[in-house]
Amino acid sequence: MTDLISRADAFAAVAHASIDQRRKYTGDPYIVHPRRVAQTVKDTGARDEVIAAALLHDVVEDTPVTLEEIRTEFGKDVAALVEMVTDVSRPADGNRRLRKAMDRDHLALASAEGQTIKLADLIDNTASITRYDPGFAMVYMREIVELPDALKKGDRTLRQHASILAK
Question: Average pLDDT of the chain?
Fold first, then answer.
């Protein structure tokens, strides 16, 4: 593991632990999810900055950490990737359907590397939700059905996998 990836892993672990964030269905420390996403991204042959961003992909969205802190700690490239996969919608923007559409439109503008992170995130979240919450899975699956098509630039193999899951 390179220094950049080690630092991103430690930073994400501390950020999520600082708010005692846990995986919803298992109670596991939240960091298990970013680590799985990062491993999936690494398996595509991604460069270190993309793997680091995968580890950090939920930090800005879920914790008090800001994009500026990510930029200062990890550089512009990693921060830009994190920004690409961070939801832009807020509760005040409207109902859940509208917010998900806003986030999907934002993701469609992401680079191939950013979309690859999101595809890995989608695959991991789908596995957890369908396994542990079949009731919500029906809602979630309707929400994500269009997402793989919006992530056309992402890793082809991950996009195919996500497309199968989203059907």
Answer: 95
Q: Is the pLDDT of residue 108 over 90?
A: yes
pLDDT of residue 161: 94
Which one from 28, 43, 61, 93 is the annotated catalytic residue?
61
Does residue 61 have an active-site annotation?
A: yes
Closest CA to 59 of 73, 45, 46, 47: 73
Catalytic residue among 62, 77, 87, 143: 62
Answer yes or no: 20 catalytic: no
Contact between residue 41 and residue 51 where contact means Cβ atoms under 8 Å apart = yes
122-131: string of b/e by CB count within 10 Å (b at 16+)? bbbbbebbee
CA atoms of 117 and 50, how far apart (whole Å): 8
Residue count of the chain, please give it: 167
